[in-house]
Amino acid sequence: MENSKLSVDELAMFCKRKGFVYPSAEIYGGFAGFWDFGHLGVEVKNNLKREWWTFHVQKRDDIVGIDGAIITNPKVWEASGHVANFSDIIVICKKCKKANKIDKHEIGKVKCPCGGEYDFEKAREFQSMFKTNVGIDGFAYLRPETAQLIFTNFKFVQENARMKLPFGIAQIGKAFRNEIAPRDFLFRMREFEQMEIEYFVNPKDKCPYKIGDSEIFVYSAEMQEKNKKMEKMKFIDAYKKGIIKTDWHAYWLEQEFLWFVGLGANKEKFRIRQHMKDEKSHYAYDTWDLEYEFPFGWKELQGMANRTDYDLKQHEKNSGVSMAIVINEKGEKLIPHVVCEPSQGVERAFLVFMFDAYEYDKKRENVVLHLHPKLACYKAAVLPIVRVDKDIVKLAKEIYEDLKNEYNVLYDESGSIGKRYARNDEIGTPYCIAVDEQSLKDKSITVRDRDTTKQIRVKISDLKEVLKKLLNREIEFEKAGKVVETRVK
Ligand code: GAP
Questions:
Q1: Ligand 1 atom at minimum distance from 348 CA
Q2: Coil, helix or strand at residue 316
Q3: Interval between CA 329 and ligand 1 midpoint (Å)
Q4: What is the pLDDT, as a whole number, of residue 379?
Q5: Which residue, 98, 101, 148, is CA-closest to 128?
């Protein structure tokens, strides 16, 4: 199986077999829409979230983070419009009798995936927020997006962090949606995580950041209406031609695309698609999605809505607390606009990195998971060539203990060296460090590269520095040590 042919079910099976992701409570038959991350999955997921936070918050001066409550005052969801509008249309298929969720604009236009006709006369709305009890007779909702906690804390954060427009507030956390038809493994879940930014601006101000010339497939609402094909173009050109209306939207769409590509995702599988008029959320003025070509089609990976001042105004109206901030020395005030809201599902990002990393290597006869070193669970595995030689084992354990202070590394002495290489290929360990007889004599080890199976010999005293450079992609593998003949691939 090559990666391009890998189906989502096959990826789910692989993830379960290796310990990345399990169906939640599988011993009781599972629970649709809920998944648990295993000992490897949690590492990749944590790395992914850390990379997102570093890129979007810590490396920027204009974005700070928060971590809001999952359950909050239900008035928040009334003010935001979710109580009135956050619902799906349910339709039942006349042929397979299954319930499915469709968008409002699809009523009368679409068929069930089984090919059957829907009974549109019985189409009904279904509130997608989960409700829960609070205290003896209170109730609340589980948040369907993390965004609202950013809006309700907006004034505190702006004042305490002394943020000046334009600036953003970021958050990573759980979100819950009572999806009618959870499907496609981690793609549509009932409990998932979001990584979101609300980016606040004065709508009169231009974006001060450069829009670059990376290229992507662009699929505007007009192209969709006129049944045209998507077009590959530079972000900057899409903005200059007026296809992307604001410089802010173009800038953020490119940033999000570059974040994925920088962590090893395949750039040819991305496109940006504008929402059609009747597809936009209740709060959105204009929305572009970053989409990815999954094996089950082009699908939303990240939503990026222009929410204007809708949310802050709604909270001002409903709470009675002013959301305006001072914008200049003259003391003029303004309710800022969220010109765009990069909103990324953690699990959908996880799927992208796994699909793009997965390859069945026919020569090696095993899967090789080409995860970017920053995302890989273990950065290296330390393997004594023979288990029976006490001196080799002792040296391997010393190297392992030393590396463990800096990286998540694995020690593995069971099975042949070939099997151990294959095991590490499958879980995406970028480098295997083998300790052999020569190591005892000249205090050197071999480092094997997961992607090419090439090996180099490196002094143990240089190992940490070499590994650091390799993991940061600062040095070519063959230049990091003395290339040696590869006996076991
Ligand atoms: N605050 C805006 C917002 O929540 P959204 O387009 O509804 O916008 C943003 O969701 C992102 O959250 C999606 O692009 C997707 O990555 C993720 N997401 C939404 N629903 C999901 C679900 N049921 N399962 C997994 N991820 C989901």
A1: 16
A2: helix
A3: 39
A4: 98
A5: 101
